[in-house]
Amino acid sequence: MTHESKPALGVGMVGYAFMGRAHSHAWRNAGAFFDLPGAPVMVALAGRSRDQATAAAERLGWGAAETDWRELIRRDDVDIIDICSPGDTHAEIAVAALEAGKHVLCEKPLANTVAQAVEMAEAAERARANGVRSMVAFNYRRVPALALARDMVAEGRLGTIRHVRAQYLQDWIVDPEFPLVWRLDVNKAGSGALGDIGAHIIDAAQFVAGDQVTGVSALMETFIRKRPLAGASAGLGAAASGNLGQGTVTVDDAALFIGKMSGGALTSFEATRFATGRKNAMRLEINGSAGSLAFDFEAMNELSFYDNTEDSRTAGFRRILVTEPDHPYAGAWWPPGHLLGYDHTFTHEVKDFVEAIASGTDPSPSFEDGLQVQRVLAAVARSASDRGVWTDVEA
Amino acid sequence: MTHESKPALGVGMVGYAFMGRAHSHAWRNAGAFFDLPGAPVMVALAGRSRDQATAAAERLGWGAAETDWRELIRRDDVDIIDICSPGDTHAEIAVAALEAGKHVLCEKPLANTVAQAVEMAEAAERARANGVRSMVAFNYRRVPALALARDMVAEGRLGTIRHVRAQYLQDWIVDPEFPLVWRLDVNKAGSGALGDIGAHIIDAAQFVAGDQVTGVSALMETFIRKRPLAGASAGLGAAASGNLGQGTVTVDDAALFIGKMSGGALTSFEATRFATGRKNAMRLEINGSAGSLAFDFEAMNELSFYDNTEDSRTAGFRRILVTEPDHPYAGAWWPPGHLLGYDHTFTHEVKDFVEAIASGTDPSPSFEDGLQVQRVLAAVARSASDRGVWTDVEA
Amino acid sequence: MTHESKPALGVGMVGYAFMGRAHSHAWRNAGAFFDLPGAPVMVALAGRSRDQATAAAERLGWGAAETDWRELIRRDDVDIIDICSPGDTHAEIAVAALEAGKHVLCEKPLANTVAQAVEMAEAAERARANGVRSMVAFNYRRVPALALARDMVAEGRLGTIRHVRAQYLQDWIVDPEFPLVWRLDVNKAGSGALGDIGAHIIDAAQFVAGDQVTGVSALMETFIRKRPLAGASAGLGAAASGNLGQGTVTVDDAALFIGKMSGGALTSFEATRFATGRKNAMRLEINGSAGSLAFDFEAMNELSFYDNTEDSRTAGFRRILVTEPDHPYAGAWWPPGHLLGYDHTFTHEVKDFVEAIASGTDPSPSFEDGLQVQRVLAAVARSASDRGVWTDVEA
Amino acid sequence: MTHESKPALGVGMVGYAFMGRAHSHAWRNAGAFFDLPGAPVMVALAGRSRDQATAAAERLGWGAAETDWRELIRRDDVDIIDICSPGDTHAEIAVAALEAGKHVLCEKPLANTVAQAVEMAEAAERARANGVRSMVAFNYRRVPALALARDMVAEGRLGTIRHVRAQYLQDWIVDPEFPLVWRLDVNKAGSGALGDIGAHIIDAAQFVAGDQVTGVSALMETFIRKRPLAGASAGLGAAASGNLGQGTVTVDDAALFIGKMSGGALTSFEATRFATGRKNAMRLEINGSAGSLAFDFEAMNELSFYDNTEDSRTAGFRRILVTEPDHPYAGAWWPPGHLLGYDHTFTHEVKDFVEAIASGTDPSPSFEDGLQVQRVLAAVARSASDRGVWTDVEA
Q1: Both D31 and D93 in a single domain?
Q2: What are B's interface residues with C at a Cβ cutoff of 8 A?
Q3: Within this chain, do residues A129 and A156 fall inside the same structural domain, yes or no?
Q4: Is position A177 within any domain?
Q5: Gene3D superfamilies from the xrefs (chains A, B, C, D) (predicted)?
Q6: Same domain, C133 and C158
Q7: Using one digit for the tens of pLDDT, what is the confidence trace for A148-197?
Q8: What residue ranges of chain A have pLDDT lower than 70?
Q9: DSSP bridge partners of B152
Q10: Is C193 helix (H, G, I), strand (E, B) or coil?
């Protein structure tokens, strides 16, 4: 099948910062490595500043720039709305897009509140009846090592799961002079480490374990409560604009919780931006009766696996370099041992999303999955504000 | 100073199993590597079975065997009582020995209950007035890497501590057919993973951080509640004696808790015997404003250190091989890069204990330190039995 | 500066297999991450089969397909010829392109013989006088960790270099049933492991050390001399077409050599396709009086550095995660700890090449550099065929 | 069997420095962990200085001190002579001891020259006829991980061996002010890095591979030719006595060679004291058609194993923690995950030597094995002095 013969899939993207750059890269490249059933066309992006949106569109390969996301939805040549703006905007955009019959790919966390997430999941449910697809962008599911981990658990290689241990450790705000960027503002971000990176490990842990957190005891902390107000930001960073004075951090710097999963496993989660020296240590370890798996995103091409069915004489955690042709996604890229990076996870996400649209099936993780993560986040926040008392996750 | 000119220090040891073997090794060798101010003499060990005690004494290098620990205390040539028997026996032996004017080295956990530990700490306090020394054998403090870690924190290399993360992961009872050894019996052991290995990481974490846990939210679990009754045991292991039937596990298989330290750091602890593939993964990570430290006993000669005062361009976790002459204890042994093992930690313990006795100073960790760990254990157990609600550690 | 205002730089690429896919990806994406001084336009690729070239052009994002590389050179809209075809074709294409005033980016090894490489270097020298640029595509120089390593050596962080140790370990032909692909044919590939991967470590080692190999003692081996004839191939792989019979392997499976560098360092190199379990272990370690560096491509985002000026008490190999904004190339991509992959090295190569063209400077590595590597390869082959006797590298 | 009932085996040790301390530790402890068929009695040590020998005997647990090794041989209560003095003394002592009917354990390298080694091997051969045993102390064979590696190769887990890669990297003389200790004097030490640590990796590589080096191309270097004369020394270290002036280093600082083994494998060896930051990195990697093994003494409790018969999807180098009951030697010590150190290798050596004496079998490695290593060393030196030309190892 040649490129021309594939049905065009027009994409409109909202936002063009960190996530926007990552998603653009994915839309630009997915077709060169995967034999997609549709041909993504990067129709337009939307941003509030015309100049910046135009420059971003040029740089990132989009055909046009809009200053209102509603324009993207209005366009007939746009089939997919890709939401890369902060969490407080997700619900309105997603619901509008779904109601307009556009497929929606939405960055995580799905929303800033459970109420918004419910609204979105309901909109997704209604849209699904009309063949309109929706997906929340928990990109870590598309790390080949974690996709392999999921497959191995599903195949029973771990037996009965006893422990699920997840950490997401970063250190980008250890310095008290780091400015008050939007991610430290509860109104924009919903929460701090909890929703930003805690959401990732909740989703990843539940995805790999094939099970859900049912109750938690939690503890949250804001170590540094006043920070310099921020100037312009980019990525996770920003320059403090010294003269703007100080503002109040309204989100958590760190969130810890212990809990149980429905299958009986004990869990332990930690999300923090104060783990000095850990840059993006998104870690997962699962111990089961038949084996164990361990992963650290700082070595994202590797999966550690202990096979408890082996002879104890030669058993050991093996470092699987997840770059073989028979590994998820990896065969499309380079020969074994030629590593993939962070951006490849988004390319895989786009591939799966396009395939789901083409085949008329529901992509995963769904908005319902995003809602469930939101409910875990809510239980964590509730327990943390109530002396750590055991709090059930709303079913 | 020649060996002969050193004052003899007669030692009587109670118990000769796993810990007895380790302590014997230490008494036998400390003088060959450290210039001790006293000459330990391995006078006698005590065990209930005369035959087994006699065989153990011969094998391990003790001059005699007794069948009653009281005999050790009665002997004039015994200056030190070394308690290596299960936790339910500690209080009685230690108090008797201290009252008889014998220095006491007592295995951990100090006792099976806070009440016993209080009694022991009070006896130690009284004995101290008479120049009688006591020490609880948290041997991990004498791992050179952890002693170095403690020194670095004390020197301020970590700045303000934000996170203390400790895990003690083992897997020796994953198999449901593993028998009901004494460590799974609450009457002998006091608790399961919590008191056995959780106690170690509580002490180690507090020691290295130079701070104490003040409150916790906890979760404990017994995954497998019935096991085959055990025959004879050795080390951690035992053979199930298939015909004896089944018994009930009365201790925890795993204990998790999150909490705070008095200096404001968040803590996370996990002790489990169900972490398949982790054999003795006693791990500690501390994140501070100026740096971080990480340790794993499965690579016990290494300490990972991230120096946050370094240029970000060349900063990174460095793997310090703690075998240099200027490292704690290491200079007494071999050239750099020639590793030490588990048993060396006991030799270091004996060295420090003998030096404290000779210099008339109190060795560390004291029975008071052991009592404080006991109080953390009690708070954990209480919180776990009360829906994880925040529980203050008794001061 | 907007995209439109940048001068267009038309690119014509020869070949579209493994390297062609990698180069295409780089041309497609460099402008989205780096603020290039010119706008690459992917004009056309050339391949012998019209159907395959056309399909590849569509898939990889090229505007047209040609069946003769000469057509690319004839086109006025092509400014750059990018040579991704096997080594036996390099000299003819490169010389023709340079003589036609096209800038040339040529895959490594530069040529299959020293004579061809001399011819190419001379053509590059003549073209340079006319402002025409040439570069040999040793992409590993653009791994951020190796670029950082080079900078650190240049800054004197290693002091006097004593040892340069390089290995390139793969295992893709361990199976005797792996077929006789073109890389095992001396007429196509020039040599086996030596020219394919040995060339990479020779260039990388010399680049990072800032020094050149002056003489060698060598040993080469072909472990498996007969293999099934190959069907169609892709990447490094191919399916044996069982019915085609067997053919003779005419290249080396492994090449080892020891030698000296002009600054007095001892070197040790090993290139092999028989290191079972090593997928792309391109490793380099340099020991100097002031420090050491170590690298393994299977963890390509990490650089190990030992600073010998540190206090021995806290010295240790530090794992620098080379993803910081102040690391070479890394700042253009993602936040710290978000890894890069194999393909990014090509994007960096394109960026540097375009910048050199725009600024009228000579990119590095030059064809002269490629020729010097060829001379090392020739000395290795000569020594290996003459009982390992010391063989000077032609100056 | 009780201790008393075991036949006493009197030991006399020559030398009491680094190796003397290590061997004393082994004699002192072997019986406490292994059920030996004989009871070693530490009768006496010999050293030239009466005061130092007496102090060492007291400290290390020997019953007496002699100032002439001949006295040890004369004693009826000495059954075993343990030679821990420098290489230039080995031949005379060993031959005299064997002729006097004493079993001999001799430190490595067996001798400083092939001629001496031949003489020793012949003496061993004659003594063997009289039931007198001899063994050369290549202690690395008794690292449990390397003993396991040997077993795995012997069981065919690696298939046909293609590569044997060995390095012994240290850095203790990187500083030009490090003094001229006896190990840098050819008359005492025979050679430098080559005989000291190169001998270890030659023996270990041949032992694990079960094969012998048949020919080599070599390169040796002395980077720093003048050093301060040394005062008293200990272990590997010494304090320069600044006022003594300078002397000439008469041994190699580094030795590299490539070669072949009789089974067709290619080998690469490097021994150096100039690998800054590597403290005792005695490394071995073997690649075979069915699997690979890797080892680094700086993590001496671990063995890396890649099983090429596994599904490529879950294959990976596994880290075997060699502390299980079914691992060589390990079961006698501690529970799994409780590490062993450098000194344990000597304890294992003593155990095996005592068992061989008791059972009337020849221990391994024999003096013939030591002679064969000496012949490899000689071939390396010869090749290095003859422009690296291929040099066969004398059969």
Answers
A1: yes
A2: 148, 152, 157, 302-303, 305, 307, 311-321, 324-327
A3: no
A4: yes
A5: Dihydrodipicolinate Reductase, domain 2 (3.30.360.10), NAD(P)-binding Rossmann-like Domain (3.40.50.720)
A6: no
A7: 999 999 999 999 999 999 999 999 999 999 999 999 999 999 999 999 99
A8: 1-4, 232-242
A9: none
A10: helix
Identify from B160, B266, B304, B319 which residue to disrupt to test chain A contact, counting A C-beta atoms within 10 A and taking the largest count.
Answer: B266
Please report which confidence band the pLDDT of residue D240 belongs to, taking 50, 70 and 90 as the band edges. Answer: low
Asked if residue D33 lies in contact with residue D2, where contact means CB atoms within 8 angstroms, the answer is no
| Residue-wise burial string across A264-283, b where 16 or more C-beta atoms lie within 10 A, e elsewhere | ebbbbbbbbbbbbbbbbbbb
Of A32, A300, A339, the CB nearest to C342: A339
Q: Does residue B393 belong to any structural domain of this protein?
A: no
Interchain CB distance below 8 Å, C306 and D162: no
Contacts of A383 in chain B (CB under 8 A): 388
Q: Is residue C359 assigned to a domain? A: no
Q: Sign of the CA dihedral B367, B369, B371, B373?
A: negative
Q: What is the domain-level CATH number for residue B84?
A: 3.40.50.720
Q: Do A243 and A103 share a domain, yes or no?
A: no
Shortest distance, CA C47 to any CA of chain B (angstroms): 43
C342: chain A residues, CB-CB within 8 Å: 333-334, 338-340
Q: What is the mean pLDDT of chain D?
A: 95
- pLDDT tens-place string over residues D53-100: 999 999 999 999 999 999 999 999 999 999 999 999 999 999 999 999
| Residue C117 shares a structural domain with residue C148 | no
Count of pairs with CB atoms under 8 A, one residue in A, one in C = 121
* Closest A-chain CA to C60: A32
Could you list the residue range(s) of the whole structural domain that residue D291 is in? 143-363+373-385
- pLDDT of residue C116 exceeding 60, the answer is yes
Partner-chain residue, chosen from D2, D278, D337, that has the shortest CB–CB distance to B281: D337
* CB-CB under 8 Å, C218 with D276: no
Tell how far CA B99 is from the center of its chain: 24
Nearest CA-CA distance, residue B283 and chain C, Å: 19
> How many domains would you assign to chain D?
2
SS3 D90: helix
User: Do A317 and A213 fall within a single domain?
Assistant: yes
Given a contact cutoff of 8 angstroms between Cβ atoms, the answer to whether A218 and A257 are in contact is: yes
ipTM: 0.96
Q: Do B174 and A308 touch (CB under 8 A)?
A: yes
Task: Supply the mean pLDDT for chain C.
Answer: 95
Query: Are B149 and B295 spatial neighbours (Cβ–Cβ below 8 Å)?
Result: yes
The encoded tokens of residue C207 equal: 């680049």
Q: What angle do CA D120, D126, D128 make, to 5 degrees?
A: 100
- Does residue A394 sit within a domain? no
Q: What is the 3-state secondary structure (H, E, C) of B307-326?
A: ECCCCCCCCCEEEEECCCCC
Residue from D151, D313, D327 whose CB has the most chain A CBs within 10 Å, to mutate: D313
Domain boundary among A97, A114, A139: A139
Considering D140, D175, D196, which residue would you say is the last residue of a domain?
A: D140
Asked if D294 and D158 sit in the same domain, the reply is yes
CATH number at residue A170: 3.30.360.10
pLDDT in tens, B251-292: 999 999 999 999 999 999 999 999 999 999 999 999 999 999
Contact A308 B264 (CB under 8 A): no
Contacts of C283 in chain D (CB under 8 A): none
Helices (H), chain D: 18-33, 50-60, 69-74, 90-99, 114-128, 144-154, 186-189, 193, 199-209, 342-359, 367-385
Q: Are residues D123 and D150 in the same domain?
A: no
Best B151, B303, B310, B318 residue to mutate vs chain C (most C CBs within 10 Å): B318
Amino acid identity at A348: H
